[in-house]
Design a protein that fits this description.
Elements lengths: L5 E7 L6 H9 L6 E7 L6 H8 L5 E4 L7 H11 L4 E4 L5 E2 L3 H11 L3 E5 L2 E4 L5 E5 L9 E2 L1 H8 L11 E3 H6 L11 H10 L3 E4 L5 E4 L5 H5 L3 H18 L4 H21 L16 H10 L19 H10 L2 H13 L1
Parallel strand pairs: 1-2, 1-4, 2-3, 6-11, 7-12
Antiparallel strand pairs: 4-10, 5-12, 6-10, 7-8, 9-11
Helix pairs in contact: 1-2, 5-7, 9-10, 12-13
Length: 338
């Protein structure tokens, strides 16, 4: 059996509602020079039957293991088994866009020194309707992004969606894979570990789809506010300590990150009558501007480009900026509609 160029890691659990679309998005790539490794965590629905069906459609291996009740542990288990030089994650509710593999494979050849290759993701809802675009506040291809640049941005907020990147397996194993104690921030912590060593490429066009729905683990478990915040702070503390930069830069980044956490927990995963979950992406450069202006209530200093409009507590925050409910409603409509 020839060695694949990419290993796709697919942890599943009761994913029958979206799994077919996820696996179909692999099939339409028309690239059989990959391996797909799926591991199920004790599903009680048709997830296993769907996986078995797709074994005739894509190069898919179903890995057996006792249920762990931990997607991070199962992902690490697959990472150890992977044979390719490059690896990526695909969760059961996310998808790929046509030509993704062709584009990324060319980038690995063009930039063999890059440990991490990123792209934006499209937000979709339960029905698959587009809600917005999850961008990364980074210089675009063909500019190589240094470790320093990446960490200074990524420490403020996780702007990388799970299905977007591919990364070198060698580096992933070197940094110890994902931290199995982190149910929410394991991916953020992992991207930061990868960013510490090597260069990054950001391809500016979306090649992946991130689905927002009320039954995802990040939504159902984000109600544990104390644990939620503790995980965010632990990632910042650990990586600020390890970051080889000036104490002045660390202090500035910490202030911005603390501001981000304080507001993120208030509105990022709030249930509301028009959305089952609120999820926005604040570009890091605007957070810098906001902090430096020291004018948190002035909407003119808050020059934020939103990839996705949201409702709930976030619009209460906008209300403080705009001053009237009428203006807030106008802002809400523009963000959701645009």
């Amino acid at each position: 059996m020839s060695k694949p160029w990419l290993s796709v890691l697919i942890p599943t659990y009761n994913g029958e509602k979206y799994l077919v679309k996820a696996l179909n998005s692999i099939a339409i790539q028309d690239d059989f020079d990959i391996e797909c490794l799926a591991i199920d965590d004790g599903s009680t629905d048709e997830t296993l039957a769907i996986l078995q069906y797709f074994q005739t459609k894509i190069p898919l291996k179903i890995v057996q293991r006792e249920p762990q009740k931990n997607w991070v542990a199962n992902t690490n288990y697959l990472l150890d088994m992977a044979r390719a030089d490059y690896v990526c994650f695909l969760h059961q509710d996310d998808m790929w866009i046509t030509r993704r593999l062709m584009i990324l494979k060319k980038l690995t050849i063009q930039f063999p020194q890059a440990n991490l290759i990123l792209n934006p993701s499209i937000f979709v809802n339960i029905q698959g309707q587009k809600l917005g675009l999850w961008r990364c506040p980074l210089p675009s291809y063909p500019i190589m992004i240094s470790s320093e640049q990446m960490i200074s941005k990524l420490l403020v907020q996780n702007f990388i969606s799970i299905p977007a990147p591919i990364f070198k397996r060698e580096m992933a194993l070197k940094v110890g894979g994902l931290d199995e104690k982190l149910w929410y921030t394991a991916d953020w912590d992992f991207w930061l570990k990868l960013a510490q060593d090597g260069q990054i490429i950001y391809y500016p066009k979306p090649l992946s789809v991130f689905r927002i729905h009320s039954h995802s683990q990040t939504v159902t478990r984000s109600s544990y506010i104390q644990d939620f915040r503790q995980q965010l702070e632990s990632v910042i503390d650990e990586h600020l300590e390890a970051w080889n930069t000036s104490s002045q830069t660390k202090s500035k980044i910490r202030k911005i990150a603390n501001f981000s956490i304080a507001h993120w927990r208030n509105f990022i995963f709030t249930r509301y009558r028009r959305f089952s979950v609120c999820f926005i992406h604040l570009e890091c450069s605007t957070l810098w501007s906001l902090m430096s202006s020291r004018s948190h209530g002035n909407c003119h200093s808050f020059r934020t480009r939103f990839s996705l409009g949201s409702t709930g507590d976030f619009f209460q925050f906008l209300f403080k900026c705009f001053g009237t409910k009428t203006k807030m409603k106008t802002a809400e409509d523009k963000l959701i509609g645009g």
